[in-house]
Design a protein that fits this description.
The chain has about 140 residues and is mainly alpha-helical. Among the domains are: about 60 residues; about 30 residues, no CATH class. About 50% of the residues lie in helices and about 0% in strands. It is built from five helices and no strands. The chain is elongated, with a radius of gyration of 36 Å.
Length: about 140
């Protein structure tokens, strides 16, 4: 015996479509009746809950960690990701110099240049005056 889905008879196909439409219409009608009943029974204290239900579920704001299911585990995973416990290698250069012929400035040289700068000239966006940049460059 053939099922309705595999039958090629147009009458069977139309009966299937009609049954499907009436089934989904009945579900929609039941949902509407339930929601109307729920809204009619609201109190001033439960309006906020109904508003949240009507807006739907929000996307999670916090990333999920598949291996961590406790707040302590999530805390450790975040801390280890953003603040790794291993220090960076010490043989790496501290600064990259765009000019290999020039040595980087020391703290004493920068302090000397800043002490000679004028307080009356307008500072740049980094609050260091133009005279200092002109001397350093």
């Amino acid at each position: 015996m053939l099922s309705l889905e595999s039958s090629r008879d147009s009458y069977d196909q139309s009966a299937l479509r009609s049954a499907r439409r009436s089934y989904f219409a009945a579900i929609k009608k039941a949902k509407f009746a339930h929601w109307s009943g729920y809204l009619s029974s609201l109190t001033p204290f439960s309006v906020w809950e109904a508003s949240k239900l009507a807006s739907g579920r929000q996307a999670p704001r916090f990333p999920s960690f598949p291996d961590q299911d406790t707040p302590e585990g999530i805390n450790k995973a975040l801390l280890s990701h953003f603040f790794p416990s291993t220090p960076p290698p010490t043989n790496a250069p501290l600064t990259l110099s765009p000019y290999p012929d020039y040595f980087p400035l020391g703290q004493e040289e920068i302090a000397l240049a800043l002490s000679k700068s004028s307080n009356t000239s307008a500072p740049g966006p980094d609050t260091i005056s133009y005279d200092v940049w002109k001397q350093v460059h």
